[in-house]
Amino acid sequence: MKIAFATTECVPYAKTGGLADVAGSLPKALEKLGVEVKVFMPKYLFIDEAKHELRYNWDIGEMLIRVNGKVFSVHLHQAKLPNSNVEVNFIDCPHFFNRGKIYTNDHDEDERFILFSKGVIEALQRLSWAPDVIQCNDWQTGLIPLYIKDNYGWDRMFDHTATLFTIHNFAYQGRFSKSTLYAAEIRPELFYPGGPVEFEESVSFMKTGIVFADLINTVSNKYSHEILTPEYGAGLAGILRARKSDVYGILNGVDYDEWNPETDKFLPYKYSMKDLSGKLKNKKFLMEHFNLPFDENRPLIGMISRLVVQKGFDIFSEAVNELTSLNAQWIILGSGEYKYEEMFRHLAYHLKGKLAAYIGYNNELSHLIEAGSDIFLMPSRYEPCGLNQIYSLKYGTIPVVRKTGGLADTVKDWDEENYYGFDHGNGFSFYDYSGFALYKSVERAVNTFANKDIWKKIQLNGMKQDFSWKRSAEKYIELYKLAKEKRE
Ligand code: ADP
Ligand code: GLC
């Protein structure tokens, strides 16, 4: 089986969030199961060619690709995903990708990903490699399913190539003005009210992906149901409901080569279920680094996040006074919206010794916070899957989450589980999207921390769980087969 995986982010080359983790690990898990996978991503300016051993593909040479009536010179570079044989193909077009950032607010944001989408298909042609399925990820690749069937439909090479459209985040939809039709060379007949590429008078890349892909999936079972409802459907729920029987949910796995406290190269002290003493040492180390006084009896609450509304920072700010009055300390790592960055700068300034914040992106620190914290907070408004709560489970760091999407599928509330007579609760959760509900569940976690035996039991319940990619990769293989059947 041959799979092309089209993505705008991939660890270790370029990352803003979880998509990069998925792109850097799912293909490797598929390869282990005998699938031939090629990853395709843009070649951004900041990717370190020497460090990642990128090689220019001389056989292919120059590809000429037209976007918005202009012809661009495009080249292909290749590398292998670390510790694997998975080939990564970098679509190189400096005009669009030498920008310093993965996503921009530039006027030609549509053109950037039109070029990428065409680039993936043209590279496949030049490589004479017809995949069974092209897995497209999020709106940036939403035109590929249309292109394969329409603009490049003349190429018999793709007659048996199916497309799977994977939604990692339904709220970012890639909507552009009608002029994008011309830029993307989409047939104007496809644009009419309620038509396959039209959404509220704009061209929607997300909708196009949903309409033209052979199958659709999201990254957790719960989210695949949630986005069929108006509350989570971000305006497109109706479109998705029309294809309800083609929508699947597969929970993301995590890469335990990267995220495992027994082997994590960023941790000064390794630890395991059998011996948790290293965890406490990491906590001391982390707190010292942030000038927070260490107190064994006070839990340290960690947060690592994009600082955006999706992640629940509006309800966090609603309850911030109550939360920071609890007998706990805080470390926050994140960047995003200015008002939330300012909120944490302000809190760190006024609550010295109690709360520390690192505003920015720092991978090494994210590992240390996962290991050194006692509690990990993720109060998301919506969460397609979420990875940090799964990392937290492995690190014995008890998650407190809002019961939504992938958070609901992975975190089982300790009290609730006990109430029903199970004892495999691995965290704390709340349902109401309010500052009060958030506060109450953090309070429950902080109070439970005082009981060391129960705390350890909850920790171990999480640490022994296995969210590695193998099982999810097997489910993807089933989905690829189904997509292929649909295409035949
Ligand atoms: P999302 O993709 O919606 O941001 P996920 O939980 O799926 O949420 O993935 C977030 C990923 O990005 C995790 O690997 C997390 O550790 C990482 N991350 C988020 N913010 C930062 C940051 N400021 N510094 C380092 N890593 C971060
Ligand atoms: C998105 C979602 C996140 C998910 C990630 C990877 O960024 O917000 O919940 O884990 O994609 O699928």
Features:
six-stranded parallel beta sheet, 19 strands, single chain, 2 domains, 488 residues, Rossmann fold, ten-stranded mixed beta sheet, alpha/beta, binds alpha-D-glucopyranose, 37% helix, 19 helices, binds adenosine-5'-diphosphate
User: How much is the average pLDDT?
Assistant: 97
Major sheet: 10 strands, mixed
Task: Give the helix proportion (percent range).
Answer: 25-40%
Low-confidence stretches: none
CATH architecture of the largest domain: 3-Layer(aba) Sandwich
Instruction: Please tell me what the overall shape is.
Output: globular
Task: Provide an overview of this structure.
By secondary structure, the chain is of the alpha/beta class. It folds into two domains: 2-253 and 470-487, Glycogen Phosphorylase B (Rossmann fold, 3-Layer(aba) Sandwich); 277-467, Rossmann fold. The protein has helices at residues 18-32, 94-97, 109-127, 144-149, 180-184, 205-212, 221-226, 237-241, 277-289, 313-318, 320-325, 338-350, 363-372, 388-394, 405-410, 414-419, 435-449, 452-463, 469-487, and strands at residues 2-6, 36-42, 55-56, 63-67, 70-80, 87-92, 133-137, 162-167, 175-176, 198-199, 202-204, 215-218, 247-249, 300-307, 329-336, 355-359, 375-378, 398-402, 428-430. Strands 1, 2, 3, 4, 5, 6, 7, 8, 12 and 13 form a ten-stranded mixed sheet that branches. Strands 16-15-14-17-18-19 form a six-stranded parallel sheet, sandwiched between helices. Helix 1 (18-32) crosses helix 19 (469-487) and helix 9 (277-289) packs across helix 13 (363-372). The relative contact order is 0.11. Bound molecules: adenosine-5'-diphosphate and alpha-D-glucopyranose.
